[in-house]
Amino acid sequence: MHSVKKFNRIIALIISVLCFAGKICRAAKWWFLPLFCVSSLACAGSPEAPERTNVTIVLSERNGFYEEYSNALDRLLSNTNISHQVIDVSQPVPDSGLLIGVGIKAATELAASKAPAVINVLLTKTSHEKLLHDFPARITSPGMTAIYLNQPVQRQLHLITAVMPGKRNVGILYTNVSKELDEIHQKLKDYSLKLQEQKVDQTQTLPIALQELLLGRSEMLLALPDAEIYNDSTIRNILLATYRRGIPLIGYSAGYVKAGALCAVFSTPAQIATQTAKLIVKFNETHILPPAQYPREFEVMVNTQVAASLGLQVEDAEALHDEIEQALK
């Protein structure tokens, strides 16, 4: 009898312990459930971090103009989370990420490579279009795009009419018919200007072509970025020939104005770097390249000494810049 009572007390104690443990477990379940839910939602709901674009800047040469651009772009990208490196064409070209071809030599190297996405800068529209012709696979997306070195025709023609009011005959030397030359033909009529053109080739060498153009009805010479005509070895003779006949040269860079051209509209390496950085940030988000485009920002420079010697009264560069900008808005 005593053994039975003792056994019953042990059974009752076990039941009490089990009931108490159950209450603790149920309480613990409700205590940890919110934490479990938050943790689960955090793991399941947080999106994966977007893949970052690795940018490689490929320089045609390590010289002042290209490095000025590269340094400006480096500073801009350093303020983002986009990783980047700078190499030149002598180094192996990566076959992934976004590559920036700085100059025609680098652009050609990248066009021939397996680089999946390319932005070319500091090369002309004609050069970029030739690359697309030579490497047609680059036309497909994401392909290859560019920020041209040369300016839209409208900016150049606005500058001409502003600095040479009343003058109508615009002389141009060229080696090959290009889309840019065709566009000039089309736009001249909108500005009441006439084109006097002369081709430079084996039969019509540069001195002969220039003489015939200046002896004609040309009242100014508009320089196009054609390296076969305008280069370090020819520019001095071209400037002397135009100056002797009282015909101003309208250049396409600050260097030409400093050398003796009357004026020029152009974009600086820093301005093109700013535009490039915006394209890179956008590509980092969308992985889509926009169509090739002209520089958005630009500068105007005037050689006041040349203007005075030619008897021309020309507005200052800042006023011309604002006038062109307002006219094209």
Q: How would you describe the overall organization of this protein?
A:
The chain has 2 domains: 55-149 and 270-286, 3-Layer(aba) Sandwich (Rossmann fold); 153-266 and 298-327, Rossmann fold (3-Layer(aba) Sandwich). The protein has 12 helices and 11 strands. It has helices at 2-45, 64-77, 104-111, 125-134, 153-163, 179-188, 206-215, 235-244, 254-259, 269-286, 304-309, 317-327; strands spanning 55-59, 84-88, 98-102, 117-123, 144-148, 169-174, 194-199, 220-222, 249-251, 263-266, 299-302. The chain is of the alpha/beta class and 329 residues long. The protein is globular, with a radius of gyration of 34 Å. Helix 6 (179-188) links the parallel strand 6 and strand 7 (194-199). A 6-stranded mixed β-sheet has the order 7-6-8-9-10-11, with helices on both faces. 48% of the residues lie in helices and 16% in strands. Helix 2 (64-77) crosses helix 10, helix 3 (104-111) packs parallel to helix 4 and helix 5 packs across helix 12 (317-327).
SSE topology sketch:
Blueprint: H1 2-45, E1 55-59, H2 64-77, E2 84-88, E3 98-102, H3 104-111, E4 117-123, H4 125-134, E5 144-148, H5 153-163, E6 169-174, H6 179-188, E7 194-199, H7 206-215, E8 220-222, H8 235-244, E9 249-251, H9 254-259, E10 263-266, H10 269-286, E11 299-302, H11 304-309, H12 317-327
Parallel strand pairs: 1-2, 1-3, 3-4, 4-5, 6-7, 6-8, 8-9, 9-10
Antiparallel strand pairs: 10-11
Helix pairs in contact: 2-10, 3-4, 5-12
